[in-house]
Amino acid sequence: LLGTVYFATAMVDADVVDILDDADARRVLSGLVAEGLAVAEALGVAVEPVDGFDPRSLRGGESESAAARATWDAHRAYWRRGVAARTGIWRDLAIRRRRTEAGPILGALAATAERAGRPVPRVRAMLARYTELEAGTPRDRAHLLALDRAAV
Description:
The chain is an all-alpha fold and 152 residues long. The chain has eight helices and no strands. It starts with a helix and ends with a helix.
């Protein structure tokens, strides 16, 4: 579930902490996590916190409840302590200019969601955007924000 956050932040030309500071971005990221969480729960997969990030607090796409804010605050703190400011996925796109693991990972999530009968429109939209990004389309905040439109 955290992987969807990292794929999403890599679509933007900004540090992860700066993206997590953006309320609109957190709303989109929360929606992505909620989609993956719904799939995990449908399959009976237990989801646990990692690095202060508790995906269960984002159930239903909640981004501004006390629990959701605590999760995002803890994850920002994790990134502030880290060595890197951006993900390896971002480096694959921006520096190495190579394909990422988006196709296999997000594709597997989308296929599993379909089998579980859970819609993942944001995940599917992100997977489609990665085809463009891997072909050289510039990274931009608009890519991230557009994912919410897929959920309407």
